Amino acid sequence: MSNRSEALTRTRVVPATPERDAPARRRGWLLPILSMPMLVLLGLPLLALLLRVDVAELGRNLASPTVLRALSLSLTTATAAALLALLLGTPLAYLLARRTFRGRRLVDTLVDLPMVLPPAVAGIALLLVFGRRGWLGAPLEAAGISIVFTPVAVVLAQLFVAAPFYIRSAAAGFAEIDGELEQAAALDGASDFDVFRHVTAALAWPAILGGIVMTWARALGEFGATIIFAGNFPGRTQTMPLAIYLGFERDLDLAVTLAFLLLAASFTVLLVVHWSLGRRP
Amino acid sequence: MTRMAGTGILFGTCHVRDTRPSTIAGAAHGGSGRPAAALRWLFACVAFLLLTACTPPAQPGRPELVVFAAASLTDAFAEIGARFGEEHGATVTFNFAGSQTLAGQLTSGAPADVYASANARQMQAAIDAGRIEPADVRDFASNGLVIVIPRDNPASIGSPADLAAPDLKLVLADAAVPAGQYSLQFLDNASGDPAFPPGYGAAVLANVASYEENVRAVLAKVTLGEADAGIVYSSDVTGTQRDQVQLIAIPAAVNVVATYPIAPVADSAQPELARAFADFVVGPTGQAILEKYGFDHVQP
Predict the structure, then answer these.
(1) Does residue A238 fall inside a structural domain?
(2) Around Cβ B59, how many Cβ atoms within 10 Å?
(3) How far is the C-alpha of B228 from the C-alpha of B225, rounded, in Å?
(4) For all residues of chain A together, what is the average pLDDT?
(5) How confident is the model over B72-128, as pLDDT tens digits?
(6) CATH (domain of A119)
(7) Smallest CA–CA separation between A84 and chain B, in Å?
(8) Fewer beta carbons within 10 Å, N or C terminal of chain A?
(9) pLDDT at residue A8 greater than cutoff 50
(10) In sequence order, what E strands does A108-224 have?
(11) Topology, domain B2-142+260-292
(12) Same domain for A31 and A62?
């Protein structure tokens, strides 16, 4: 239980319920007051955006096929990127949490790098690898597979930029788990996979889910790497952030409306995830 | 409109100041370690600009020429200004901004010596405001759309008609930016032109892999070989990029060509120097520099 709540606090806000945290029972105005500036800074721009939305414009945009295609492309690619991060990132996260090896620090840094890299640089780097003349892109092209300008490129860009959030969160979650629990399960005859599934993953579940949510959210907002690596084609590679950016160059109200749609969609998903996580027994 | 013009003045002039080490920009750099001093300088700059609406302080002993020039001329005119300054012992100060902004500034009385516009319409606006004599206006450059292809031309494109070939990857600028609009206009023109195959525009649009957010991105995709072809403005292909791509001309009949006119401002305080600058731009040195930056000659 304590593992779970600690892992949770690291990745997302957990309401301090009285039975979990004794200090939360203390009353006082200093803490809420000190929290205000940050809250205002986070909330005010969103509020301004919300109040700028024109309802008639919103209805018109919701009926526009371009907007709907951008929204559905965004939701599907971000979900694909999050699932791929789960699939490909979990072994790496577990490795970082459980093993010490030469070059570990290097791997650690490498995982952090995409988070600090300007996304545009990430896009160029991806082009150099997966582009038509890239290291992997050239042989793929010869085999008749092209990646740039396709939805696959969108997912790759999102995965590159967002997967570190999952790997970091999951690795921290795995590291929290007492190795003796795993050893005990193994002694009782559980296979490695069973130990991981029923002990490690089960205990680190909140950290895994929190990491996935952050990766999904980051992937949904991805712009710089996407526009450089995947280009911009409505229905194929034009995700919501791209549509918003180009809408901004044409018409501010259009951009605001699209931004509101993206916010509403991501807010709903995040709320549902938080709610279902909070309800877990 | 007024607000836009105001922003243009601030932007254009402050930008030019940065290129001049000996004047106000120097003081700003010297004071950058002290926020208060920098802030004071900023206030001074704003107040100064508001008061004088863009009149730069003349260096003692050197005549100063103020040139209002379209933003697309920035690189070419910076070099022309330096050369002209050497030859005439003058300091050329530029106010680079969109032609519409510049015409607005001239109309509202901003002091200037020369105006170089990116199109005839905004020059006409300055003429209508009485700032330019119609007889003084000369076209000095033109800039049209060109097709860019990678150096090794993987899709074997030899003419604009080849853009309609199936299985070709074309990148255009998005219609949100001018180059994108003009590219679509060119396709529209070509579709109605008997020299192009029927259904040309639709066939070319079917090849579009991406509508890039700016012209630089179109060029980058072609340079990297990700796209088989792209459409940009001729003056967008500058410097090292000239060696990394090949250009295919688009016939003038279907091209969207911008013609740049220049003229001395009628009420310039130094009419001879202003006229000399316009002559210099139209003359061989100016034309050679403009050509280097991708502009085409104008047939007189």
Answers:
(1) yes
(2) 14
(3) 7
(4) 87
(5) 898 899 999 999 999 999 999 999 988 888 999 999 999 999 999 988 888 999 999
(6) 1.10.3720.10
(7) 25
(8) C
(9) no
(10) none
(11) D-Maltodextrin-Binding Protein; domain 2 (3.40.190)
(12) no
The CA distance from B217 to the nearest CA of chain A, in Å, is 8
Closest B-chain CA to A235: B210
Is residue A128 domain-shared with residue A196, that is, in the same domain? yes
Residues A25, A119, single domain; the answer is no
| Predicted confidence (pLDDT) per residue in A51-107, tens digit | 988 888 888 888 888 889 999 999 999 999 999 999 999 999 999 998 889 999 999
User: What's the pLDDT score for residue B49?
Assistant: 52
Residues of chain B with CATH 3.40.190.10: 2-142+260-292, 144-249
**Measured torsion, CA atoms of residues B182, B188, B193, B198, in degrees rounded to the nearest 10:** 140
Domain tally, chain A: 2
Give percent helix, percent strand, percent coil of chain A, each to the nearest 5: 75, 0, 25
DSSP 8-state class, residue B295 = P
Residue carrying structure tokens 């995709």: B221
Residue B55: predicted pLDDT: 46
Residue-wise DSSP of B83-128: HHHHHHT-EEEEEEE-HHHHHHHHHTT---SEEE-SSHHHHHHHHH
Question: Which residue in A has a C-alpha nearest to residue B216's C-alpha?
Answer: A228
| Prediction pTM value | 0.74
This complex has an ipTM of: 0.80
Burial track A195-221 (b if 16+ CB lie within 10 A, e otherwise): bbeebbbebbbbbbbbbbbbbbbbbbb
Provide mean pLDDT across the span B159-171. 94
Nearest Cα to Cα of residue B227 among B169, B156, B284: B169
Whether residues A245 and B213 touch (CB distance < 8 A) is answered with yes
Q: Which of B211, B224, B225 sits opposite A232 (nearest CB)?
A: B211
Question: What radius of gyration do chain A's Cα atoms show?
Answer: 21
Q: Can you tell me whether residue B66 is helix, strand or coil?
A: strand
**Closest chain A residue by Cα to residue B181:** A250
Which tens digits make up the pLDDT trace of A153-171?
A: 999 999 999 999 999 999 9
Are residues A216 and A87 located together in one domain of the fold? yes
- From B177, B212, B225, residue closest to A231, measured CB to CB: B212
